[in-house]
Amino acid sequence: MARQERAVQTRIAILEAAAAAFGERGYDATPVTEVYERAGVTKGALYFHFGSKEDLARAILDQAVTTEGVAPHELRLQELADILLLMAYRLPREPVLNAALRLSVDLPSQQLFGTRWPDWSDLLTRLLAEARERGEVHPYVDEAETARILVGAWTGVRLVTAGLPGDFDLVREVVALLRLIVPSLAVPTVLARLDISAERAATLYAEMTAKEGEDRGE
């Protein structure tokens, strides 16, 4: 069991090292040597867990679409907002998510691996469809179109603020984005019940990390 646990930890260390390097330098500019040196493992250990640099990139992208930390809610629009808020809180703190975004927006990486935008759009489309069935959104809302706009706008906020002078908090920027868009989607009785705030994002993250600690027996 101890050997298996070490193998798991080695794999995680390699993945996080690759994510940090890809996030900083991009996929093409990152040599494999930098990854295993950052991870503190041998070249053989890296190739035992990942057959190639391409496999590393795909493993990172496989973790790009996640609802971890978001519990089911009676309002599907609250679930949707929670996913986008928590992702905004997690992305600057988790190299794997940050690298997944960079892999998705860098053109050479797109050509090699594609993106996870369709998966994100499908996820939000399903939530919006359920929200429609529950009477949470206006009849004129097109679920697929709205999902695409949300994914594009969220990504745009991240990319633009990262390139602007000054220090922008991604969570607060996403809160501002949602407060502009959600009132055009939600019926008034539902809108009044939604919590779209930076404080909610922080709470969701704290609850998620606490649960992860409990799962590890900490």
From TrEMBL:
Database matches in PROSITE patterns: HTH_TETR_2 (PS50977)
UniProt keyword list: DNA-binding, Transcription, Transcription regulation
Return the InterPro entries for the record. Answer: ArpA-like (IPR047923), CprB_TetR_C (IPR054126), Homeodomain-like_sf (IPR009057), HTH-type_TetR-like_transc_reg (IPR050109), HTH_TetR (IPR001647), Tet_transcr_reg_TetR-rel_C_sf (IPR036271)
Source taxon at top rank: Bacteria
The signal peptide here is none
Where is each HTH tetR-type domain found? Answer: 8-68
**Which is an annotated Pfam family here?**
TetR_N
- DNA-binding region(s) in UniProt: 31-50
Recorded protein name is ScbR family autoregulator-binding transcription factor
Q: Which organism is it from?
A: Streptomyces coeruleoprunus
Which taxonomic lineage is given here? Bacteria, Bacillati, Actinomycetota, Actinomycetes, Kitasatosporales
